[in-house]
Amino acid sequence: MKLERAGELLCALVAATVYLNTIPANFAFDDSFAVIYNGDVTSDTNPLWGLLVNDFWGQRIYSAQSHKSWRPLTVLSFRLLRKAWTALPEHWRQDVMARRSRTRLPYEDDEAAKRGLDPLLFHFSNVIWHALVSALVCRLAYFLLRRRWRPRSLLVCSRQPSGKTRQLEMGVQQQLTGNEVSEAVSDSAGTAQLATSSQTGIRKRRKPASPAVAARGPPPPPSGSSTVASNCGIRRAVVTARAAAETARLFPQLHIPAWFGGLAFAVHPVHTEAVAGVVGHAELLCAAFSVLALMLYIQG
Predict the structure, then answer these.
(1) Considering all CA atoms of the chain, what is the largest pairwise distance in Å, rounded to the nearest integer?
(2) What tens digit of pLDDT does each residue of 248-260 get?
(3) Which residues contact 92 (CB under 8 A, 6 or more apart)?
(4) Cβ contacts of residue 133 below 8 Å, gap of 6+?
(5) CA 251, CA 15: separation in Å to the nearest integer?
């Protein structure tokens, strides 16, 4: 468990380190339309419910000028980042904007500064989200690898087991303690009733018995049913014990592929546009919630 957390932390640190140089960057390309000229981001007078009827650029979703990109969660995140920027001390904001003005080219027009905006927190947020997604990818790798090699209880029951089944029992039963066998047999108590209730194993709706039949009580179980249940429980415990031992042997080998998957995701150049561009915030949010949803879906 410690190595899992260490792998997630390592992936997050590497992902953040790789993109630290994007934090001082300016707004670029579509960032101006998504943030600077977007009233849903820059104006507190725009109601929050407007995020549900406006597109990613602040236009009505049903208008002819809208290209129907609806991302209300991303726009809300932009709005919160803008409010966080305005909540910073005034002298901090002035120092950041003055330093940025000295690095601006002569022909560049800083419309963001005129509106009291700065891309510092937007880029910083993207780096943090990318680090979080990289850690989640490492966790997803562990999650999938564990499910691939998790112990599975195989229930192999028959009144007359084959020779191979008998060898499996004799070979592995010697490795189990008396308590493990007793627990396995007690766990399979319900299996005996299911195995001997009917020949087909399918529960059928029965008519209520007559008073005379009910007075006699239930029929005695067929001979040998307890033996079948015991063998069934022992075999299930045998297979589960072997699978658990195999998983314990293989689990240390899962760290290398899980770490590799998380680190490869963290440094892959295909993510550059999503992390370096402010509008890529939508992809980062989508990736984070998609990984969580995928794990919940598989687990459920």
Answers:
(1) 104
(2) 565 677 888 999 9
(3) none
(4) 15, 265, 284, 287, 288, 291
(5) 25
